[in-house]
Amino acid sequence: MTSNEAPEPIDWDAAAATFDDEPDHGLRDRTVRAAWADRMRDWLPDTPGDVLDLGCGTGSLALLAAGLGHRVTGVDLSPDMVELAREKLAGRDAEVLVGDAGLPPVQGRRFDVVLARHVLWTFPDPEATLRHWCGLLRPGGRLILVEGVWGTVSPSGLPMSRLVAALTPLVARIHSERLSGDARLWGRRVDDERYAVVGVAPDAPARHSEIVDVHLILRRGDEVLLARRSGTGYGDGLLHLPSGHVEDGEDVRAAVIREAREEIGLDLDPADLRVEAVVQHRGPGQAPRTGWFFSAEHGAGGEPVNAEPDKCSELVWHPLSALPHDMVAYCRAGLAAWRAGERFLVHWQSDGEAVAYEGDRATAPESLAPAVRTGGVHHVELWVPDLAAAKGPWGWLLGALGHVPFQRWGHGMSWRRDETYIVLEQSPDLRPGGHDRHRPGLNHLAFHVADRAGLDALVTAAPDHGWSLLFADRHPHAGGDGRYAAYLEDAWGYEVELVAE
Fold first, then answer.
1. Are residues 158 and 221 in contact, defined by beta-carbon separation less than 8 angstroms?
2. What does pTM read for this prediction?
3. Mean pLDDT of the region 449-475
4. N or C: which terminal CB in the chain sees fewer CB atoms within 10 Å?
């Protein structure tokens, strides 16, 4: 049939053999069927198009759409229903598939109409389902939804106000109408809420936009602070970093400072923060978003407290090297990327995946690790006489400088930042004798520090962690009048230079 030809008339007597007994769903009654046909003419486009009927049942509405000349694809989870629908639609430009209406098996196809009757309310997250369905529409396509609320003692269904609110940001136009008062549609008078909502997609794809969120990695040595979500509607019961959305007019740094104050009571200064990673994330059934991960040291801005007990059931410290499994997958992926020295990560979840971390994913997150730079330092290895004793001073200093625990083996361990890592090893091949920086060989390691205040704070704390200040009579200009630096020495004579920018 071409678009200029009239559709073949429906043999209703033959079709009636496969209608359900209930007139609400099967349209066995001629009056009910005519009433729905009138509504479908109003809701569907005037010219034939591709219609996706989700939760199609035995195909009653699909048959009405086909009778108006549209090409129909039906989807239902029940194989028995699908067989009846195929029988009913035999000879029409139609196909019926077995599958989940929430995630229809249409392999990237787009439609002029997505139709669902008394289906959306059955999903645990109707808003997420709506977003997925809108993604199946062509520009200018229509989403036709028939829903309602049934019962008074324990009502079931979906209020019109909730559906309209969820659909408004997804479409260009919305039409809604009450259906409860039309007894012809139901074969009897009904007193509960029944309605239809038609959303029309924009005529051209909308310019892509994303939510921007921020995450705070608050570090205490090799531990990180996590918050257990509660009562938020997203990831409740799972651990997550203190985090939130960037608000209008905020930059990302101002946003993470605000979120830290609101969630864990910290009064951070911009100088306390370091950008660690950027993650583009798509959660299951969600639109993409971009997350900025910042780090700060424990003690900056005060002591963390649970400032939002209605949204967080507890704050806990966890070792970075042994993160718990009961975490939001997005959060854990960002932490894993940061620990691996990756500055950018694409964490793209399919609709069938879980919000919670589920171990190694079949499809690994795509990362853009720092480019390999010819001539750049890969790692530095220090042989120490006592690994257990050296771990404390060096772990504190490297952690304070932004390195994170990287590897551990029987007689060694390492800390990594970006693509470079530092190794401490008590090698079985170590020869007797101590380190002497005045002999040929390594004299010292030198590290950047962001500013003078940061350097001064490290020098003040260093003695408590096994470091002593060298050249104290010339500090902080032991390297020259134009250089602000500190020289520290550990108990075995290894020297480190800290240089303030």
1. no
2. 0.47
3. 93
4. C
